[in-house]
Specification:
Elements lengths: L12 H14 L15 H7 L7 E19 L2 E7 L4 E7 L5 H7 L7 E10 L5 E12 L15 H6 L1 H7 L1 H23 L3 E2 L5 E2 L11 E4 L4 E5 L4 H9 L4 E9 L11 E10 L3 H18 L9 E4 L2 E4 L5 E4 H9 L9 H10 L10 H13 L7 E7 L15 E9 L2 E8 L4 H16 L10 H8 L5 E7 H9 L20 H5 L13 H7 L7 H6 L11 H11 L3 H21 L4 H10 L4 H4 L7 H9 L4 H8 L15 H21 L11 H9 L9 H10 L4 H19 L4
Parallel strand pairs: 3-5, 6-10, 14-15
Antiparallel strand pairs: 1-2, 1-4, 2-3, 4-5, 7-9, 8-9, 10-11, 11-18, 12-13, 15-16, 16-17, 17-18
Helix pairs in contact: 5-6, 9-11, 10-11, 12-13, 18-20, 19-20, 19-24, 19-27, 20-23, 22-23, 24-26, 24-27
Length: 739
C-alpha cells in the first residue's frame, strides 16, 4: 500500500527526503531499481587519462556508479562529485546532454544518494577530469543525511556502532580494512608457501581447553547439553599432528567471555600453527619471516630495513630479534636479580614494594611471572622473544630439560604488548594428564578460567605425537601494529558495543505511515528491538521533579548509627553515600541529596536482622518510623530485588547505579586492603580485573551481581570497573579516617 506522507517541517531533512522518495514513486520513478551498469571506476580513469590536456573532450564513454558527496547547480549546468569504492570523480552535467526527465531528476537528488551515470570523459578548462553524462539514474535514495563533520567526532562509540557511516565519511578507515584483508591474505600465502595446510576445527567444544579464559556457554539442543564457544584451536590442531598432518594452521574466530579494552574484544581472530619435528627455534624463524614480509608488502619497507612506526614509537624489525629469559626482563624492571631460586619471602617483599598483590598458594614461578607481567613487559619496544616461562603459568608447554621448573615457551612482545605465544609442545600423555588434573584442582579453588580434563586429547597423545613447535598469533593485534591503530575496535569492522537505547519513536520514524494488517505494531517492534523502549523509563526520569527523603543528612546518619554498630557497616554506608553523590552530580544534579541518602541507608537493616530475602523490607519500616518518604524506601529496596521478587526492580538511573556500586565497591575495598598503601589512590583497573577473576578472593562479593550491575547501566564490565575506581578516588578525601 502506498505511504501517505504529511508535509514535512522545513527543518526536518529526514522527513523531506522521505517526501522526495514518495514523490519519485508517485511519478513512476523507482528509487531502488534492480539493474545497474558499471564499466569503469574513478581511480582507473584518473590513471588512464592522467595525460589528458585541460579543455579536451573525448568520445570514450563509460558507466560509473557511486555516492553523491557534493552537488551544486549553476544555471544550465550541474556539478556532482561522485565517490565510488576507489576514488572521487566529477560529473559535469549539462541540460542539453540529458533527457528532460533526467535533468529534472537532478533536482530530487540529495547528498548521500547513490546514482549511476553514463557519459564521455573530458577534462575541464580548469583541469578537472570529469564525465559528461548523457544518462543519469537514481540507484538508491538516501533517507538519512550524512553527518557534516563526522570525521571530527570525538565520540568514537558512534563511529564504531555506525561503522557504515564511518566507512562512508573516512577514507582512511576504508584503507585500514583493505589492509586488514591484504594482511590476512598475505598470511595465508606465506603459510602455504612454507608447507602448512589450512584446516578447520569446531567452533563449539564440549570441554574447555587450549587456554585459560572464561568461555561463552551455549546449549546444544540435539545433544541436550551445554557446549563452549571455543577459546582456542590448540587441542584440535594438535590432534591433526598426531594423525600425521605435519604442518597445519587455522585462522579463525575465538570467543572469550571477558572484558573489553584497547587490546581485547570478546570475539577476536587468531592464527594457530603447529609443525611436527620443529621447536621454539622453528617458531622464531617462522615469526620473524612472517612479520618482516608483512612490513615489506603492506607497509612498503625495504628488504633488510623493516622499520615501522606504532603510536609514535619506532619499531625495528630488521635483523635477528632478541631473545630474553622472562626472569631477566623481570630483574631489569624491579632493579634486582630474581629467578626461580629467589626465596619466596623475598619475591613477596618485592611484589609488595611495587604494589603487586600476591596469594599464599603462589610459588616462585607465579611470583616471578607477576613481576614480569606487571613491570617488565611494558618496557619492551622492539620485537623480543621472552622465553623460559615458569611451568606454573604454562600448563600445555614442555618442560626444559635443564630446569623442569621452566618451560620451553616464548611470547613475542612489541611495544609492551604480546603478539604471539609459542611452545615446544608437550607430547608426554602422562605429564599432560597430570597437568590437566592440576587445572581441574585450580577450578575447584574458584579459577573459572582453568581448563577441564580432556580425556580424548590425552588418549590421542597416548598414540604418540611427534615433537612439535606450536604458535598462536593475535591477528587483530598484528593488524593494529601494521595499521598504526591505537585500539582493537579500530581494526574490527563491527566490534562488540554496549546496548543502544532505541525508543518507540525511533522505530516509528522508520516505518511507513500506513501498513497492511500483517505488519507488527510499533509496541511489538519495540519489544523485539535491542533494549527497546525499556530504556524510556530511565530517560523520562531525567525530567522528573526533585525528590524528597523526608530526612536531613544528619537524621539519616543518626538512623544508620542507631541500627549499626560495626564500623565496617557504617563505613560501607558512607562509601555508598559518597559514590551516589558523585554519580548524582553527573546524572541527576537536582537530586544529589536524595541519591546520597539512598546510598547511606541502603543496608540500614542488615546488621540487626541479616535476612537475605527480607533485607530492605525492614529498612522501609525503619525509614517510615523516622519520618522518611516512601520514595526513599522504594529506591533502597530495588537493590535487593534479585533475592526477593516481591521487591521493585531497578528501573531509573539512580537505582541502577546503586545496584552496580553496592557489590562492586565492596570488592574494590577488599582489594585495596591487600595493597601496601591501603589506599584506592594507587589502585589500577588491571588489579581489579585479576581480583574479579579469582573467585576465592572476597568470595562474598557476587560476581554475577556485578555483571548485572554493568548490564543495568548499559556498560561494559571494564568500563564499569574503571568508572567506580575513578569515583572512589574522587570521594577518597571524604572517607579518610574511616576504618
Amino acid at each position: 500500500m502506498a505511504e501517505k506522507t504529511a508535509t514535512p517541517s522545513a527543518n526536518d531533512e529526514r522527513a523531506q527526503r522521505r517526501a522526495r522518495r514518495q514523490a519519485l514513486i508517485d511519478a513512476g520513478v523507482q528509487p531502488y531499481p534492480i539493474h545497474s551498469t558499471v564499466t569503469a571506476h574513478a581511480a582507473d580513469l584518473e590513471e588512464r587519462y592522467a595525460e589528458l590536456s585541460d579543455g579536451t573532450d573525448t568520445e570514450d564513454v563509460y558507466s560509473l556508479t557511486g555516492r553523491i558527496r557534493a552537488f551544486r547547480k549553476q544555471g544550465k549546468a550541474a556539478f556532482i562529485v561522485l565517490e565510488d569504492c576507489t576514488a572521487q570523480i566529477q560529473l559535469f552535467c549539462r541540460v542539453n546532454d540529458l533527457p528532460e526527465d533526467e535533468w529534472a531528476l537532478l533536482g530530487q537528488l540529495d547528498l548521500g544518494d547513490i546514482i549511476g551515470a553514463t557519459g564521455a570523459v573530458l577534462r575541464t578548462r580548469r583541469g578537472q577530469l570529469s564525465i559528461a553524462p548523457t544518462h543519469v539514474e537514481l540507484l538508491s535514495k538516501s533517507l538519512r543525511p550524512l553527518p557534516e563533520k563526522f570525521h571530527g567526532l570525538t565520540d568514537r562509540e558512534v563511529r564504531y556502532r555506525q561503522r557504515y557511516v564511518d566507512l562512508i565519511m573516512n577514507p582512511e578507515v576504508r584503507d585500514t580494512f583493505r589492509k586488514r584483508s591484504q594482511i590476512i591474505s598475505l598470511i595465508r600465502r606465506y603459510m602455504e608457501a612454507d608447507g602448512y595446510m589450512e584446516v578447520e576445527t569446531p567452533m563449539m567444544h564440549a570441554i574447555l581447553g587450549g587456554a585459560n579464559a572464561k568461555p561463552f556457554v551455549t546449549h546444544f539442543n540435539a545433544l541436550d547439553r551445554d557446549f563452549y564457544l571455543r577459546i582456542a584451536t590448540e587441542l584440535p590442531l594438535k590432534r591433526c599432528i598426531v594423525g600425521g598432518l605435519e604442518r597445519v594452521f587455522e585462522i579463525g574466530r575465538q570467543f572469550r567471555n571477558e572484558g573489553m579494552d584497547l587490546t581485547h574484544n570478546p570475539e577476536f581472530t587468531s592464527m594457530e600453527a603447529y609443525c611436527a619435528y620443529s621447536d621454539l627455534d622453528g617458531m622464531k624463524e617462522l615469526t620473524q619471516g612472517l612479520f618482516k614480509t608483512i612490513a615489506r608488502e603492506v607497509c612498503g619497507c625495504e628488504d633488510g630495513h623493516e622499520v615501522i612506526t606504532y603510536q609514535g614509537q619506532t619499531v625495528d624489525m630488521s635483523g635477528t630479534w632478541e631473545s630474553l629469559p622472562l626472569s631477566e626482563v623481570a630483574s631489569r624492571a624491579c632493579g634486582e636479580h630474581v629467578d626461580m631460586d629467589t626465596p619466596i619471602e623475598r619475591l613477596r617483599q618485592i611484589c609488595e614494594k611495587h604494589g603487586i598483590e600476591w596469594q599464599e598458594n603462589w610459588g616462585a614461578g607465579k611470583l616471578v611471572f607477576e613481576l614480569y607481567d606487571e613491570l617488565g613487559e611494558a618496557t619492551l619496544v622492539n620485537p623480543t622473544f621472552v622465553c623460559d616461562y615458569p611451568e606454573e603459568v604454562s600448563p600445555l608447554s614442555k618442560r626444559k630439560d635443564d630446569d623442569p621448573r621452566l618451560t620451553d615457551r616464548f611470547e613475542l612482545v612489541i611495544c609492551g604488548h604480546e603478539y604471539a605465544n609459542a611452545f615446544s609442545e608437550l607430547n608426554d600423555p602422562v605429564d599432560q594428564a597430570g597437568r590437566f588434573a592440576e587445572q581441574v584442582a585450580a577450578k575447584g579453588f574458584g579459577d573459572d578460567e582453568a581448563m577441564g580434563y580432556d580425556y580424548d586429547y590425552v588418549r590421542a597423545l597416548e598414540y604418540g605425537m611427534p615433537p612439535a613447535g606450536g604458535i598462536g598469533y593475535g591477528i587483530d593485534r598484528m593488524i593494529m601494529l601494521f595499521c598504526d591503530a591505537p585500539a582493537i575496535r579500530d581494526v574490527l569492522l563491527f566490534p562488540q558495543m554496549k546496548p543502544e537505547v532505541i525508543t518507540r519513536a525511533d522505530i516509528a520514524s522508520q516505518l511507513p505511515e500506513t501498513t497492511d494488517n500483517a505488519a507488527a505494531s510499533v509496541d511489538a517492534l519495540a519489544d523485539d528491538a535491542e533494549h527497546g523502549a525499556s530504556n524510556e523509563a530511565a530517560a523520562a526520569h531525567a525530567d522528573a521533579p526533585a525528590l524528597e527523603t523526608g530526612l536531613t543528612r544528619d537524621q539519616a546518619f543518626d538512623l544508620l548509627k542507631k541500627y549499626n554498630e560495626d564500623p565496617f557497616h557504617i563505613a560501607h554506608g558512607q562509601t555508598l553515600e559518597g559514590l551516589m553523590r558523585y554519580y548524582a552530580q553527573k546524572y541527576d544534579p537536582a537530586n544529589v541529596e536524595f541519591w546520597g541518602q539512598v546510598g547511606l541507608l541502603h543496608d540500614l537493616d542488615w546488621e540487626k536482622f541479616q535476612d537475605e530475602v527480607q533485607h530492605t523490607v525492614k529498612t522501609a519500616e525503619l525509614i517510615e518510623e523516622a519520618g522518611g518518604t516512601k520514595e526513599l524506601a522504594r529506591a533502597i529496596q530495588t537493590h535487593n530485588s534479585d533475592n526477593n521478587p516481591d521487591l521493585p526492580a531497578p528501573s531509573c538511573k539512580m537505582e541502577c547505579v546503586l545496584f552496580a556500586c553496592d557489590e562492586l565497591s565492596g570488592l574494590i575495598q577488599a582489594a585495596v586492603l591487600m595493597r601496601p598503601s591501603k589506599s584506592v589512590m594507587d589502585f589500577e583497573l588491571k588489579s581489579l580485573k585479576k581480583k574479579f577473576k579469582d573467585k576465592r578472593f572476597a568470595a562474598g562479593c557476587d560476581r554475577d551481581v556485578i555483571r548485572k550491575g554493568a548490564e543495568l547501566n548499559g556498560m561494559e564490565l571494564d568500563d564499569l570497573f574503571a568508572s567506580v575506581i575513578e569515583a572512589m578516588k574522587a570521594i577518597q578525601p571524604t572517607c579518610e579516617g574511616v576504618e
